[in-house]
């Protein structure tokens, strides 16, 4: 599918072969704060999730895609549309690149660019939003590059470690719809 293919990465649907990758990413405590996870996931639960991953975005109200380098089919990260609302034509966006060595190489930037295009041109959405912790400078920079604007701050929203952290809500409006 050329819609979801960039210069250095492409986005693809989840496959049964992604079980170990999903298990690793869902159980990596260092990223739990960005995914709102609090407990580990078993391989059994992830297998069940993969069995239902075939559902259409209109049925599941979410779309989770694997981010892959163009020279391999192996996933390096995930990008999601969640809280998909076809009536109001909006969805939330989440992204994670698992390994530190794959971060800051433009893969997340290309993935987000492809997802924005897909959401606005193929799903005909009017808006996307992202909730980002106030100290997550890399994500704030990534989303603002594409025109996401800060529309609000949720004070002391997330309890991380032993402190509360604000969460910033960003929004991107598709003016062409």
TrEMBL record:
Query: One Pfam family, short name please?
Result: Acetyltransf_3
According to the UniProt entry, its GO molecular function terms are: acyltransferase activity, transferring groups other than amino-acyl groups
Q: Where is the N-acetyltransferase domain?
A: 9-171
Superkingdom per UniProt? Bacteria
TM segments?
none
Give the record's keywords alphabetically.
Answer: Transferase
Sorted alphabetically, which InterPro entries does this protein's record hold? Acyl_CoA_acyltransferase (IPR016181), GNAT_dom (IPR000182)
Q: Name it.
A: Diamine N-acetyltransferase
What species is this protein from? Flavobacterium croceum DSM 17960
Q: What is the lineage of its organism?
A: Bacteria, Pseudomonadati, Bacteroidota, Flavobacteriia, Flavobacteriales
